[in-house]
Design a protein that fits this description.
The protein is mainly alpha-helical. Helix content is 62%, strand content 5%. The model has no long low-confidence stretch (mean pLDDT 95).
């Protein structure tokens, strides 16, 4: 199960990187879309911050300190800077999930708001959260660029190798 979660996280983080690379310049990730509360750049920052906090720091002891408010207020980073942040998150997720004892999946996990679940369910939630916002990012990019090209975010190849 843990290796399956790792496969999904890494596949979707590769999709996140591909989405950022498909923006044609450094301004379009930050372009507002009427009716949408977040720019593509802010979605990237939110996903990176979420994973570095809840996987890298919580389970991997990376020491990352999250500033959730900044994920939604920061603007103007270049595509190269966004890709660098995605790559950093990917590295932390891969290292952390690759070194976790599978027994941790059944262990209690504290959630925000003083709630508790099992770690495996929390990791599945984080994977779904990544996919949810990845789809939003895809629509943001297509809307602001007019480019319907797919980033190929959901390839089945990684699943066939498990």
């Amino acid at each position: 199960m843990l290796s399956h979660l790792e496969t999904l996280f890494l596949r979707d983080l590769d999709g996140l990187r591909a989405e950022v690379e498909l923006y044609p310049d450094d301004d379009t990730p930050w372009q507002a879309v009427p009716g949408c509360p977040n720019s593509g750049g802010n979605l990237v920052l939110h996903l990176v911050g979420n994973l570095r906090h809840f996987i890298g720091a919580k389970f991997g002891g990376t020491g990352y300190l999250r500033n959730r408010d900044a994920e939604f207020s920061t603007t103007g980073l270049s595509r190269q800077e966004l890709v660098g942040l995605v790559d950093k998150a990917r590295s932390e997720v891969a290292t952390t999930l690759g070194s976790l004892d599978p027994a941790v999946l059944a262990a209690p996990c504290e959630l925000p708001g003083n709630r508790v679940t099992v770690t495996g369910l929390w990791l599945m939630h984080l994977s779904v959260h990544l996919g949810y916002h990845l789809g939003q990012l895809d629509y943001h990019r297509r809307t602001v660029t007019g480019n319907p090209a797919s980033a190929g975010m959901l390839p089945l190849q990684p699943l066939a190798s498990v």
